[in-house]
């Protein structure tokens, strides 16, 4: 167990290092000259200024030195500087990340609370009408692009019915709680896709577990069907769901990016999208690193949870 | 990329090495799979939907002629009616005609990117799984690292650096979505490489390349094809998302995502015909592909067949 933890932790560190390398390669792949991009085209006529800029930011050094320099900054929490917004990327993160965490957190919790019971219900009544209805719905919402779902929700609930706002809460975090009516549609949009995914996962996980020997044993020993389902099967079925949740984080973040741009919700995803349009690379890459770190840590936690929850799992070799 | 690829040839030509199997054996395996596949009513429905949509997109424009290049502001935002069955958009393009040409790009990009990604993922995963050890560790950690970055984010960074043409979008999507395939194939390769026939071939002096391309990849063909099918759906959704964000196909060309993007601007004017046709088309195609993928999984995976 300890050996597994150490190996898994080392693996996570290696993956994170690779992420920084990939990001750095992307940073280097930017076409054109960074100095010219920042100082404007007129700076071509003034090589001394360009050279000074390159010296100041280390662009005159060999690429490996640049990588180490950049990595050193990263370790100190310095993610770079956004040229278009004239702010450090970390301060941008400080103001926008909490909003995304809130949006994603509320949506995922809501999605799980709805998806797990649906999945269990489908597995128990499989191939019945209930199963077919929810299977069709999950196919529909899996196939529907997030922005289309969001658009239709805006059309119905704010343009026609005037119940919820068409735009997510603006400003600081306080507004996210006071303007809950504006937050409703973004949360529902993101949750619908997640529900579609996780009701499928739960359904198949519960169905797999219902076929296991321990279910028959428990039934033979006189446990009621209800008890077997909720005490035995559900607990075991949720273990793979925990792992899948960790693995789904990048997908959910992509959904958040789209949702935020549909609803003008000033979270990290929306800022990333704006940065991509304005070719603000430091912001884009800074955000990528943050999301990647979150994902690596998420799957690390999920794996550890898996090992703790399921004593059958033996991690002799990964 | 014509309609025949997705319609007559249920099994896309993406996987590299079927010729390695004796012809007789291949046929019987596929024949059995085909039988199970044809029994699945959802799969038939999915196939029918795909045939119709391919016909609509690729044959449609030869029957229904529209100008999809020149902006005509005199015709902007016309409601559906005679002359324009689905109305016109903000630039005066006929929406029905645009649905056809936009669909061509969505489908072409989806198929091509999926085939490329499948090829890349298969080779990567088979090599990693076959060699194991350090090679496997290095190759798979790279996959882990790339997987931790959301595909959409990665694709957005790349297209924001190089404003893309259709070919470049295919490359970007393929290069960012081969990762799950490689993981699956690596798992298969890990179990296949210790099989007796692979060992025997190695003892007889066969090369590693032969093992990977003639034994491991062909035996994982079920996994590869099923995965490729879902890749098509995901690639279509990804290109649609890129276009929706305004970083995909450039005007006057468009795809279904681009149509939704421009339709969104008139969301408050009640021009529903600028939003729903493209949205419904995307949903139909993705659902159809998923039906086919599920059926293919049932026909190929023995484990599931027995249940």
Biggest beta sheet attributes of chain B: none
Distance between the termini of chain A: 12 Å
Strand order of the largest sheet of chain A: 1-2
**H and E order of chain A:** HHHHEEHHHHHHHHH
Net shape of chain B: elongated
Architecture of the largest domain in chain A, CATH level 2?
A: Orthogonal Bundle
Q: Cα-atom Rg of chain A, whole angstroms?
A: 24 Å
Helix and strand content put the structural class of chain A at mainly alpha
Identify the CATH class of the largest domain in chain A: Mainly Alpha
List low-pLDDT spans of chain A.
none
The parts of chain B where pLDDT drops under 50 for at least 5 residues are: 1-24, 302-307
Query: Beta-strand level of the residues of chain B, as a percent range?
Result: under 5%
What is the β-strand count of chain B? 0
What do the pLDDT scores of chain B average to?
Answer: 77
- Per DSSP, the total helix count of chain A is 13
The largest inter-chain interface, given as chain pair and residues per side, is: A-B, 49 and 44 residues
State the assembly state of the protein chains.
heterodimer
Descriptive overview:
The complex is a heterodimer of chains A (318) and B (307). With 318 residues, chain A is mainly α. Chain A has 2 domains: 2-89, no CATH class; 90-309, Orthogonal Bundle (MetI-like fold). Chain A has 13 helices and 2 strands. Chain A has helices at residues 2-28, 34-39, 47-56, 63-75, 89-124, 129-143, 146-160, 173-178, 180-210, 213-220, 225-262, 268-277, 281-309; strands at 81-82, 87-88. In chain A, helix 10 (213-220) packs across helix 11 (225-262). Chain A is flat and about 85 Å long. The two termini of chain B are 37 Å apart. The model of chain B is unreliable at 1-24 and 302-307 (pLDDT under 50). Chains A and B meet through helix 1, helix 6, helix 7, helix 11 and helix 12 of A and helix 5, helix 6, helix 11, helix 12 and helix 13 of B.
């Amino acid at each position: 167990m300890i050996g597994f933890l150490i190996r898994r932790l080392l693996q996570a560190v290696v993956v994170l290092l690779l992420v920084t390398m990939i990001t750095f390669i992307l940073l280097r792949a930017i076409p054109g000259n960074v100095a010219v991009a920042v100082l404007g085209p007129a700076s071509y006529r003034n090589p001394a200024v360009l050279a000074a800029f390159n010296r100041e930011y280390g662009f005159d050094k060999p690429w490996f030195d640049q990588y180490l320099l950049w990595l050193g900054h990263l370790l100190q929490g310095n993610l770079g500087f956004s040229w278009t917004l004239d702010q450090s990327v970390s301060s941008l993160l400080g103001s926008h990340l909490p909003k995304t965490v809130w949006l994603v957190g509320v949506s995922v919790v809501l999605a799980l609370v709805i998806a797990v019971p649906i999945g269990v219900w489908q597995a128990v009544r499989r191939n019945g009408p209930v199963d077919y209805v929810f299977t069709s719905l999950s196919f529909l919402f899996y196939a529907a692009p997030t922005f289309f779902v969001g658009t239709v929700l805006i059309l119905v609930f704010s343009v026609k019915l005037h119940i919820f706002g068409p735009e997510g809460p603006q400003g600081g975090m306080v507004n996210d709680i006071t303007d809950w009516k504006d937050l409703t549609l973004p949360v529902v949009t993101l949750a619908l896709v997640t529900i579609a995914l996780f009701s499928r996962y739960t359904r198949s996980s519960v169905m797999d577990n219902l076929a296991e020997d321990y279910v028959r044993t428990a039934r033979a020993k006189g446990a009621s069907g209800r008890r077997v389902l909720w005490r035995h099967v559900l607990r075991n079925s949720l273990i793979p769901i925990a792992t899948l949740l960790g693995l789904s984080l990048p997908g959910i973040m992509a959904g958040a990016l789209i949702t935020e741009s549909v609803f003008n919700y000033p979270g990290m995803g929306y800022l990333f999208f704006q940065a991509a349009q304005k070719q603000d690379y430091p912001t884009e890459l800074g955000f990528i690193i943050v999301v990647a770190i979150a994902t690596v840590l998420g799957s690390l936690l999920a794996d550890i949870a898996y090992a703790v929850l399921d004593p059958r799992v033996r991690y002799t070799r990964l | 990329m014509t309609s025949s690829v997705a319609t007559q040839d249920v099994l896309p030509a993406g996987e590299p090495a079927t010729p390695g199997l004796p012809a007789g054996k291949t046929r019987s395996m596929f024949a059995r799979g085909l039988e199970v596949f044809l029994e699945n009513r959802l799969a038939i429905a999915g196939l029918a939907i795909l045939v119709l949509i391919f016909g609509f997109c690729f044959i449609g424009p030869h029957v229904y002629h529209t100008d999809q290049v020149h902006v005509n502001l005199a015709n902007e935002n016309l409601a559906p009616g005679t002359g324009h069955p689905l109305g016109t958009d903000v630039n005066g393009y006929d929406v029905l005609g645009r649905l056809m040409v936009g669909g061509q790009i969505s489908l072409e990009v989806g198929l091509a990117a999926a085939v490329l990604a499948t090829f890349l993922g298969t080779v990567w995963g088979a090599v990693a799984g076959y060699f194991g050890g350090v090679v496997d560790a290095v190759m798979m950690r790279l996959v882990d690292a790339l997987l931790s970055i959301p595909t959409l984010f990665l694709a957005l960074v790349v297209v924001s650096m190089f404003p893309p043409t259709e070919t470049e979008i295919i490359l970007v999507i393929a290069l960012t979505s081969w990762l799950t395939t490689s993981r699956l194939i690596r798992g298969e390769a890990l179990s296949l490489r210790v099989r007796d026939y692979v060992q025997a071939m190695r003892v007889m002096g066969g090369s590693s390349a032969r093992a990977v391309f003639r034994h491991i990849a062909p035996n994982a063909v079920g996994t590869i094809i099923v995965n490729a099918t879902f890749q098509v759906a995901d690639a279509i959704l990804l290109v649609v998302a890129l276009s929706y964000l305004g970083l995909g196909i450039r005007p006057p060309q468009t795809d279904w995502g681009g149509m939704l993007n421009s339709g969104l601007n008139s969301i408050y004017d009640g021009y529903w015909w600028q939003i729903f046709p493209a949205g419904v088309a995307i949903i139909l195609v993705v659902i159809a592909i998923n039906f086919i993928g599920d059926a293919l999984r049932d026909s190929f995976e023995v484990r599931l067949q027995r249940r």
